[in-house]
Amino acid sequence: MGKIVIRGGKPLFGEVTIHGAKNAVLPILAATVVVGGVHIIENCPELSDVSTTVEILKELGAKVTRCGDKLTIDTTCELSHYIPEKLMRKLRSSIIFMGAVLARNKKAKISSPGGCELGPRPIDLHIKALRELGAKITEEHGYLVCSADSLLGKEIHLDIPSVGATENAMLLAVAAEGTTVIQNAAREPEIEDLALFLNKMGAKILGAGTSTVTVVGRKKLTAAQHRVMPDRIVAATYLCAAAATGGEIIVRDVCPEHLSAVLAVLSDCGCMIQKGSNYIRLCAPKTLLSVSSIKTMPYPGFPTDAQSLFLAMLSKSKGTTIISETIFESRFCVAAELCRMGAKISVDSRVAVVQGVDSLYGACVSAADLRGGAALVVAALGASGKTEINSPHYIYRGYENFEENLKTLGADIAYEE
Ligand code: UD1
User: Fold this and answer.
1) I need a labelling partner for 303 at 20 to 30 A (CA). Which of 132, 259, 269, 296 fits?
2) For residue range 58-84, what is the model confidence (pLDDT) as tens digits?
3) Helix or strand or coil: residue 110?
């Protein structure tokens, strides 16, 4: 297995264009299953998570072709209702196919996705929401066996505003008789993007992006074309990398309002931020300032997916920052690797205390999850000397042309076998 090798200490300068959002592409690709036809999805990044989702679509019987960033998904023929364990385990968010396959076939048999590197990731809210709509779901030998002979719109209250459970409920609700109201829905922009696509298919979804999402079911659906929204976490990654190196960059093809919480913290750290309608320019100070506290929250709060990036970036700063993780309990694993690079971080359960140091140094480290891996890249770019990052496959789950883009910005970075 290869590694990413970075010789750090070079400020990043220049421009980078942000690709489509992984977390929007995945549910949108699942939504193409809901009705047969030829769907066209543009701005689909080439990521291993997208490839796995395409594998699932093909396993179900869809025909999928890629031309540049455009995926054509033909779901016209009869589709299977079965997704085997080997595919479900590759990608936990494949659970999103439960609602989509049920909506299409009125039955589904999919493997339980299992835990992952972020600690236990339950699916109880997904199951509860789909049962509310009339789905019968039993667990048999590690598989979720689902049927849905009569689906009825309902008021669903999510105990936690789960992104995946909101999306799963939306996907099944379009096939239910009557109106579904999802209360305490997640408000992430990716949910709005899914609603936009489903509405292009002919669905009637109101309120996506707010805590109350209303789905009027059983509308006549047809295949649709859609361009996926930009990836706000990838944008945050390049901004953090520029900030960690004392650089100045412009990220293009972004929605700055999706990054409000992230930009507010970057600004508190001393970065100058300038926003246009679809770009953000960041100019970093010589030395980053610590911020009193960062707490991850559901959108529009500070995103858990950006937490590791800030942990890495603020490792080299003036002062102490307290970071609280409220969404995924095992998201501080990367702290131990950052400490190998000279960071001073102490973790107690869901709280990390980051005592900023003047400089980090290169070391041999390992990625253990997607954003943690990207965080190691951020730290390494700002560190002196050579860093080797093992298990880079985690990073390729969410970043297209990562090394190439960073090289264009002036980084000394390479993938080595
Ligand atoms: C999605 C994103 C992920 C992001 C996360 C939170 C995708 C593909 N992934 O993940 O990158 O970090 O949102 O913004 O879009 N929970 C339950 N029971 C459930 C479901 C969730 O207790 O049935 C809990 C989780 O353990 C977690 C919280 O709810 O503590 C939020 O999780 P959720 O919003 O569901 O995250 P994902 O959709 O898995």
Assistant:
1) 132
2) 999 999 999 999 999 999 999 999 999
3) strand
Look at residue 120 in the predicted model and tell me its pLDDT.
63
Domains of the chain: 3-19+230-416 (3.65.10.10), 22-227 (3.65.10.10)
Whether 333 sits among the annotated catalytic residues: the reply is no
Residue 352 near residue 377 (C-beta atoms within 8 A): no
- At residue 114, does pLDDT exceed 70? no
How far is 192 from 210, CA to CA, in rounded Å?
9
Percent of the chain whose pLDDT exceeds 90: 92
281 pLDDT band, cuts 50/70/90, is very high
Structure tokens at 206: 């109101």
Are the beta carbons of 39 and 225 closer than 8 angstroms?
A: yes
Indicate whether residue 231 lines ligand 1 (CB < 6 A).
no
What is the SS3 assignment for 104? Answer: helix
Q: State the Cα–Cα distance between residues 321 and 100, nearest whole angstrom.
A: 42
Structure tokens at 349: 């359960």
Mean pLDDT of 231-250: 98
Instruction: Give the list of residues 6+ apart from residue 68 with CB closer than 8 angstroms, or none.
Output: none
- Give the pLDDT band (50/70/90) at residue 116: low
At 327, give phi and psi (nearest 5°): -105, -55
Residue pair 310/353 in contact (Cβ under 8 Å)? The answer is no
Q: Which neighbouring-strand residues pair with 147? A: 107, 136
Of these residues, 44, 77, 116, 339, which one is catalytic? 116
| 3-class DSSP state of 72 | strand
